[in-house]
Amino acid sequence: MGARVDVTPAAADLMRSLRGQHGPLMFHQSGGCCDGSAPMCYLEGEFRTGASDVLLEELHIDGVDEPISFWMSTSQYQAWKHTHITVDVVPGRGSGFSLEAPEGVRFLIRSRVLTPEEVAALPS
C-alpha cells in the first residue's frame, strides 16, 4: 500500500497492459484542462516534470519491472496534500491525451483525507 497513492486491481491490470503495449509509464495529475483533474498516463518522460511538480509516489505494480511515477502539479498538491489517492479505472473514454483513451476506459481518482496516523508516518 502506498503512503499517498494506491491503485485498484482493475487499474493495475490496465497499467500492466499499457506497459506491455507502450513501455515504461508515468502519471501526472494536473488541475487544469483535459478532463479536469483526471490522472493522465504517459510514456515515462513524455510529460516533462520540473520544479512546478511534486513526485507523490513510485507505484510498484506486480508484473511491471520498473516503478510507475505519479506526479502532481505543486499548485494542486497544496490543495490535496492531506489527501490519499486511489487510482481506479472506469468505462468511458476521457477527452485527454492519456494512453488508455483508445481502450474505451479512463483512469480516475478516488480520494479521502489522510488519517492523523498516516500524516505522521509520511516522510518529512
Provide structural commentary.
With about 120 residues, this protein is of the alpha/beta class. It is about 20% helix and about 35% strand. β4 (about 55-60) and β5 (about 70-75) form a beta hairpin.
> What ranges have pLDDT less than 50 throughout 5 or more consecutive residues?
none
**Run of helices and strands:** EHEEEEHEEH
Shape: globular
Cα distance spanning the termini: 18 Å
State the assembly state of the protein chains: single chain
Query: Helical stretch count?
Result: 3
> How much beta, percentage-wise?
35-45%
- Report the strand count: 7
What is the helix fraction of residues, given as a range? 10-25%
Question: Descriptors for this entry?
Answer:
single chain; 124 residues; alpha/beta; four-stranded mixed β-sheet; three-stranded mixed β-sheet; 7 strands; 22% helix; 35% strand
Lay out the secondary structure.
Blueprint: E1 5-7, H1 9-22, E2 25-29, E3 39-43, E4 53-59, E5 68-73, H2 74-80, E6 83-91, E7 105-113, H3 116-121
Parallel strand pairs: 1-6, 2-5
Antiparallel strand pairs: 2-3, 4-5, 6-7
